[in-house]
């Protein structure tokens, strides 16, 4: 005869794993909430500036498709790890990056050139733009829906696939965007041309 004791032991172990997984998930969600509690919500705050290539940009003009607004700094090690992903996203999505307290245009241009980055950047030398958005640390990313509403916000390291998924979801969340695209091909806000 077989001893029926192993089955309850397996169930107990599985219940323990699920409980631990839920606890870790609760901690991660709680930390993310705590980090983003000061972030702007609802309509995106004004963001107007000049990009490193001299183009004047107004976030309001980007409505109609999802936009990634990414606050970063040249001195931030986590930002350096994620910049490649931001650059890749800029190939096929609208991206506006804000270099917070990272020096002048020449310094940021040099930083980007050394790393082969070309996403559009607006300088925030005194942190005023960051304060308007409630950002106290970097990296911080905001995904705006086509109507200019903040759909998602995150602080700390974010994966390229996670940001792409949020951009995709934000594009699906609005029934009627304020501005209809003029063609079926979406053009990113950057120097990149999609392949």
Quick overview:
The chain has helices at 6-36, 77-89, 105-115, 128-133, 160-173; strands spanning 48-50, 56-58, 67-72, 94-100, 121-124, 140-144, 150-155. With 195 residues, it is an alpha/beta fold.
Give the CATH level 1 class of the largest domain. Alpha Beta
Could you give the count of β-strands? 7
Sequence stretches where pLDDT stays below 50 over 5 or more residues: 175-187, 190-195
What fraction of residues sit in β-strands? Answer: 15-25%
Class inferred from helices and paired strands: alpha/beta
CATH architecture tag of the largest domain: 3-Layer(aba) Sandwich
User: What is the total number of structural domains?
Assistant: 2
Give the end-to-end Cα distance, rounded to a whole number of Å.
66 Å
Descriptive keywords:
195 residues, alpha/beta, Glutaredoxin, five-stranded mixed sheet, two-stranded antiparallel ribbon, 5 helices, elongated, disordered C terminus
Description:
This protein is an alpha/beta fold and 195 residues long. It has two domains: 1-37; 48-173, Glutaredoxin (3-Layer(aba) Sandwich). Helices cover 38% and strands 17% of the residues. The protein has five helices and seven strands; from the N terminus they run αβββαβαβαββα. It has helices at 6-36, 77-89, 105-115, 128-133, 160-173; strands at residues 48-50, 56-58, 67-72, 94-100, 121-124, 140-144, 150-155. The strands form two sheets. It has a five-stranded mixed sheet with strand order 5-4-3-6-7. Strand 4, helix 3 (105-115) and strand 5 form a beta-alpha-beta unit. The radius of gyration is 21 Å and the shape is elongated.
